[in-house]
Amino acid sequence: MTAMTVNERPVDFDMDPATPLLHALRDAANLTGTKYGCGVGDCGACMVLVDGEALRSCLVTIAEAEGRFITTIEGLSRDRSHPVQQALVAEQAIQCGFCTPGIAIAAASLLRSNPDPTEAQIRDAIPNLCRCGVYPRLVRAVQRAGRVARRRETISAAPAPGIDPEDAARAVPGMRMKGAGSDGEGPN
């Protein structure tokens, strides 16, 4: 058994110690926010915090992670209230969303050590690949998250996970509840 703390909970993995942390998190712990991208450490989609440092989980074995504190995107904040998550939404720095968890983890690690980074420091600390090309908005989002973390700015919260479908239907006119009648409340 390989023991570590994942998202503030003790976890024992009964797996080969050479198993990449990425696979243990996704396959055994069902923490699928950490993405498999390239498998060789180039893309950053699998980024997690290991003892507070952003590392590519495809390159860390569970033996190397033993006894350490791991934080995945699911553990960054349960309600998406982390300044990085809020700023990524506010600055529209999310496109398809595949790379977003790794980017959020790298940005959170940077802001923990440097709450007021320059554009160059952001680009150096967040080497993640994004096929959608959100880089200009990403820099603005990280700078904004830094201002939020320093209490110089606030951001209106993004919707909480698990929004009630009826509330969503009222907020988004193009979305209607199934089975609603033909009185304009849904499809006929």
Describe this structure as you would to a colleague.
The protein is of the alpha+beta class and 188 residues long. The protein has 2 domains: 2-75, Beta-grasp domain (Ubiquitin-like (UB roll), Roll); 83-150, Orthogonal Bundle (DNA polymerase, domain 1). Helix content is 36%, strand content 11%. It contains 8 helices and 5 strands. A 5-stranded mixed β-sheet has the order 2-1-5-3-4, sandwiched between helices. β1 (2-6) and β2 (9-13) form a beta hairpin. α4 packs across α7 (135-149). The protein is globular. The protein starts with a strand and ends in a 17-residue tail after the last helix. Mean pLDDT is 86; it is low at 173-178 and 180-188. Pfam families: Fer2 (PF00111), Fer2_2 (PF01799). Keywords: 2Fe-2S, Iron, Iron-sulfur, Metal-binding, Oxidoreductase.
Taken in chain order, the helices and strands follow as EEHEEHEHHHHHH
Structural class: alpha+beta
Low confidence ranges: 173-178, 180-188
Count of spatially separate domains: 2
Content of β-strand: 5-15%
Q: Helicity range of the residues?
A: 25-40%
The biggest sheet amounts to: 5 strands, mixed
Task: Provide a quick synopsis of the model.
By secondary structure, the chain is an alpha+beta fold.
